[in-house]
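Illustration: S-inosyl-L-homocysteine hydrolase.
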Amino acid sequence: MKEKDYAVKDIKLAKQGQERIEWARRHMPVLGKIKEEFEKAKPLKGVNVIACLHVTVETANLIEALIAGGANVALTASNPLSTQDDVAAALAKKGVKVYAIRGEDEKQYYENIESALKIKPNITLDDGADVIATVHSKHKEYLKSIYGGCEETTTGVIRLRAMAKDKALKYPVVAVNDAETKMMFDNRYGTGQSTLHGIINATNVLLAGKTVVVVGYGWCGRGCASRAKGMGSNVVVVEINARKALEAAMDGFQVMDMKEAAKVGDIFITVTGDIAVIRGEHFKLMKDQAIVCNSGHFNVELALDELKKMSKSVTTVKADVDEYLLKGGNRIYVLGEGRLVNLACAFGHPPEVMDMSFANQALCVKYIAENHKKLKNDVYKVPEEIDTRVAEMKLESMGIKLEKLTKEQEKYLSSWSMGT
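Result:
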């Protein structure tokens, strides 16, 4: 491979990255089985795929499954701090077009997307909709060759549904994020565990006895709240949705608005997919040495520009921990520059949950390749048969058997005349 065909930090990291990729593979049996099927059937032969995803060991296994299916793949990072440089090197060494370097600035980030787009994609995979946004705003010439795309984040799906509503979406997209075998497990158990891992990894703070404020009670918020509770924290939930707030209260958590929560929290986690949910008015109410982090896709959830204006100084006190010294003397610690704390400060989701998420991705890429002519320019749910198949394959890999209905039970459930 020519050097111009990739942009990674250090190709010499490839051996270390390959070892880690293989370790993750052992914990991703569903994706492994799909890869075997793809190798035999080649359902993606000649299909060009651009993947704008977190460049991790789990993602590497997805990329290898797509290539096994016959796809030509270009990979770029979906977040400047989520790339694992050894993984990028390992994939580049194998001939994959990889454009991802941990810590790249915004200019390099978008240059890497531009480089990956040169593959002239038929299918796009997004983690935050940046490729879709770039194609629609800057490279409409690629639209005629694109069959469709997949989106794997709540944030991205929100953006795409807004585009579809405004008739601005120019090709069909499958909302992989909304598959039950993704959302209920990846978002809840993956984000919950990896977010706390990121906080602990960056700070080594004791969670027991601390008040943890979780802003947003979707599946990611539920996961963060339940994991923090399990570590002995007092958990406060901030919500705008009445039903979710009620659910959080029934789950045993205190529910407050952001101003009240700002006064009592020791650790703050945002998981909303919205902009500026913690603002200057909240930062000024926080305790000295409050820890603030974000586990939503983009760092816009924290109004860091407002925090900076309120501060006398900003100092990096240790890796991934910035101290904002407020003019009143209080200190606020921001983790991972406000970017995804579970990837900026830790390893991201465990492979066991990404196994299901990326199984959905792989099967949805196949679905788009085979069905794109029937699809309109809209956001689609993952077909139920794919979602169900992933669940069944995961259960099988865990050695768990399902109960089956008897004929009498089937008749009872489908009848209105049998009575009680």
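Reading the tokens back as a structure: The first strand starts at residue 48 and ends at 53.
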